[in-house]
Design brief:
Strand content: 5-15%
Largest sheet: 5 strands, parallel
CATH superfamily of the largest domain: P-loop containing nucleotide triphosphate hydrolases
Oligomer: single chain
Shape: elongated
Helix content: 40-55%
Radius of gyration: 32 Å
CATH topology of the largest domain: Rossmann fold
Distance between the termini: 80 Å
Structural class: alpha/beta
Number of strands: 14
Number of helices: 21
CATH class of the largest domain: Alpha Beta
Number of domains: 4
């Protein structure tokens, strides 16, 4: 390694000039702190060993400069005036180790070996993280619906800030993906992203998981353990299902968010962490506040900025691209232009209510791919709870199912001429006039439902509701 050694004793300087190269290291030996500072400005070092008490610029001053110019460099203090105060000051400055004079060369060698191993592990970890990032790629929010575009814009706006974010949405809508996108777009992107589901942790272990514990703090605590706040230091902590956090711990979380100060279970000393927190929930925290199960001040603290993810049933325009993504995730060799589902399969998927949202869709596609040897997926490959709906739709109201599937080419012309006597006997209803206007609008806009809804002055959700009503009425007539 490349070592910077600074001590005002000439005999120790000479010893290090000889012994550090003999141990296999490249050594720069300085007679005082000021010379060490100049060396730091010229060269990057793996480890700095400095005397605590030097005239002019002391060891702690040199270490402070190390933290500024090379945060990855490890620092070791060596001193002949050992005291509790100096040891505490060294620990607070983040030194790797603390040696007292006279110390043996073997002690210095042992410390440098530990530094070498730590740096080797750090290098391997960063290489592994890089491989994982390249394999996973950047987080993708699949779709181009108006609702998803709003989410993208909010993510881009809030990611570069340090504001706490509350992500709301039904189960399975992709709240963790949004949190990951916020992290990747922030200045903390090179730091860790630590995700924890508050509802999945046993209540008696939540405090230890979040804040850590000291050895012997409770039965089973056989060693010191850092909590997730410490693990996420310098990065982002994603607290999913924050509404499941026990009220007894909500005050501790609030203090950690406000002060950046945490305390391990069984420890008397606090630790300061630099963490951005993103929370998510599918529950109404306002109702929980009214019921007394969630702290109002904590809600205000985590809800500096809010992002609401629309459920899948409100962004059905995105369903074809989501299906493509789910197929390619399971079968990555699938060509981008390949037909992955038959048209009638898409009709079934569009007619489903998707209470489980995108997570349910992913499970449905994976189920179908297990049964399918060659693409495209067929109705027989779908779970029976979805396929049965298609069997009922077969041959019924082709206009309705074609509109739901976005197959405008097969939509019947709504204003077909009728015999004069038939028109006189059966007046046109308001619902029929509405559907005629919708179908004509879809024809004009080549099946683009969002543009059609804007043209008709209704929301996209209202448009889908009216189309589903047509399909349901058709089913009722054939039941």
């Amino acid at each position: 390694m490349r070592i910077l050694f600074a001590d005002d004793e000439a005999s120790i300087q000479e010893l290090m000039r000889i012994e550090l190269p003999r141990l296999g290291h490249e050594a720069t030996v300085c007679p005082d702190g000021r010379t060490a500072l100049a060396a730091l400005d010229r060269t990057a070092y793996d480890c700095v060993i400095v005397d605590l008490d030097m005239p002019g610029v002391g060891g702690l001053d040199v270490i402070a400069r190390v933290r500024e110019v090379s945060p990855d460099t490890e620092a070791v203090i060596i001193t002949g005036k050992s005291s509790l105060e100096s040891a505490v000051a060294a620990v607070r400055s983040g030194v790797f180790d603390y040696l007292t004079k006279p110390c043996k060369l073997s002690e210095i060698q042992a410390v440098l070996e530990r530094v070498r191993k730590k740096r080797e592990l750090t290098t391997r970890l960063r290489a592994l993280e890089g491989r994982v990032r390249r394999a996973e790629g950047a987080t993708q929010l699949i779709g181009a619906s108006a609702g998803l575009e709003r989410v993208r814009k909010l993510i881009a706006r809030v990611a570069v800030s340090e504001a706490s974010v509350l992500v709301r949405g039904e189960t399975g809508t992709g709240k963790e993906l949004v949190a990951r996108a916020i992290h990747e777009g922030s200045l903390r992107a090179t730091g860790p992203l630590v995700a924890v589901n508050c509802g999945a942790l046993p209540e008696h272990l939540v405090e230890s998981e979040l804040f850590g514990h000291r050895k012997g703090a409770f039965t089973g605590a056989d060693e010191h353990r850092a909590g997730l706040f410490e693990v996420a230091d310098g990065g982002t902590l994603f607290l999913d299902e924050i509404g499941e956090l026990p009220r007894s711990l909500q005050s501790r979380l609030l203090r950690a968010l406000e002060s950046g100060e945490i305390r391990r279970v069984g420890d008397n000393q606090s630790v300061f962490v630099d963490v951005r927190v993103v929370c998510a929930t599918h529950r109404s925290l306002e109702d929980m506040v009214a019921a007394g199960t969630f702290r109002e001040d904590l809600l205000f603290r985590i809800n500096t900025f809010e992002i609401v993810i629309p459920p899948l049933r409100e962004r059905l325009d995105d369903l074809p691209s989501l299906v493509q993504h789910c197929v390619r995730k399971v079968r990555p060799q699938t060509p981008a232009a390949a037909l992955v589902v038959a048209p009638d399969v898409l009709e079934v998927l569009l007619a489903h209510a998707w209470p489980g949202n995108i997570r349910e869709l992913a499970n449905v596609i994976e189920h179908a791919l297990v049964l399918c040897d060659e693409l495209p997926l067929l109705v027989v490959h779908l779970p029976s709870r979805l396929g049965s709906g298609m069997h009922r739709l077969s041959g019924v109201e082709p206009t309705a199912v074609a509109v739901l599937a976005g197959d405008i080419a097969h939509v019947a012309t709504p204003n077909q001429p009728q015999p004069p006597d038939a028109a006189a006997e059966k007046p046109v209803s308001l619902r029929e006039l509405e559907m005629q206007a919708i179908l004509e609008g879809l024809k004009r806009n080549q099946g683009n439902k969002a543009r059609t809804a804007d043209e008709l002055g209704i929301s996209l959700k209202t448009l889908y509701n009216k189309l589903h009503q047509v399909a349901e009425n058709a089913l009722d007539r054939t039941a």
